[in-house]
Amino acid sequence: MNPDVVVIGAGVVGACCARACVEAGLTVVVVDRGAVAGGTTGGGEGNILVSDKEPGPELDLALLSRELWAQMAGSLGDSFELDPKGGLVVATHQHTLDYLLRFADEQRACGVIAEPVAATDLPDHEPRISRDLAGGVLYPQDMQVQPMLAAAHIIEAACATGRTTLMTDCAVTGIDVDASGAVSGVRTAQGVISTRHVINAAGTWGGEIAALAGVELPILPRRGFILVTEPLPPLVRHKVYAADYVANVASDNAGLETSAVIEGTHSGTILIGASRERVGFDKTLDWHVLGRLAKQAIEIFPLLAEVQLLRTYGGFRPYCPDHLPVIGPDPRVPGLLHACGHEGAGVGLGAATGHVIAQWITGASTSIDLAPFSPARFGASHVA
Ligand SMILES: Cc1cc2nc3c(=O)[nH]c(=O)nc-3n(C[C@H](O)[C@H](O)[C@H](O)COP(=O)(O)OP(=O)(O)OC[C@H]3O[C@@H](n4cnc5c(N)ncnc54)[C@H](O)[C@@H]3O)c2cc1C
Predict the structure, then answer these.
(1) Which of 52, 193, 303, 360 has a CA-to-CA distance to 170 between 20 and 30 Å?
(2) Are residues 167 and 313 in the same domain?
(3) How many domains does the chain have?
């Protein structure tokens, strides 16, 4: 096997990278030590948000990505439940609303559609919402997908071209370089794959893959839990979340942070998030966290107090210290590219990530400046 590109990781980001590379005319092998979407992609939600991004490189990437998601959904026949439902961010107190309105002003200057909603008008958008809120902002550009279906169908479509091979249950154990230090192949549990380009799409485990190539990447797990209700008739129309969520996303605090995030799904269940804490890869269920999530959700949708929970699940967001993903070539190892560390936005940012990575490999100018996402921002350290 001698593909143009080996993608390590069959999560949503790896899937988007594979598809973009194939569309750019490259041959691809996708390798995952487990199943498609068996990593964080199978442990999160599927929001494609611009509403929670402050002006800057991540917002630029998010705006590009939502366009690309819509195009992908069009060409893949709505196979992954893309729902352009819009987001509604609400404030419980006046001081939070003041902050939210200022934040929305800044976002509008960057091309985000953000419409202030007075407290009295909130029920027009969400009839079941609490009457005790201070107000909110509507973000019509926010969308939702089912992330596991997205990863699976995007990889399936790439394989259907005949130019992509998927290898699951196949761990990558090494990255080979030639005498000049450039990538020459990938060692796996099923043998060596010769290639000149490796895309590290290993999410929370992106640092381990980087280490196989002899370089450091500071990616850490940031745990999150989700509650899932029983299936219900449509009660929640938008992605609805508390304004505090934006501050939690941007926080460097390793301790527990929770803020209500509520949304319906095609199957009728309601998903309730979102917690954030850095506790390593500890998967232990934490009832205290689940209780906090439930309480905060009921403050926004009081009717949830009467609803049964079906289950809970969680995952490990790939967290970088500056909250930006690592996207682009690694100057320390020619041929190694990173597409990982997207924290709580890997689904939303996945489409644009694959797009710019494929552009870079084929020598096209990238739609977005990759400098802010470069691994060089962490310093040029190598590992032994
Ligand atoms: C509770 C929660 C809620 C979230 N909500 C959202 C949301 O609403 N919107 C959003 O955009 N994002 C959300 N996220 C974040 C999102 O899920 C992640 O950013 C995204 O799934 C990362 O995708 P990925 O493809 O980079 O990584 P992953 O899905 O983790 O894929 C990486 C893959 O690499 C493989 N791998 C690792 N090591 C090796 C190896 N040595 N050899 C071979 N394969 C290897 C793994 O098996 C894995 O399948 C949420 C996350 C959580 C936990």
Answers:
(1) 360
(2) no
(3) 2
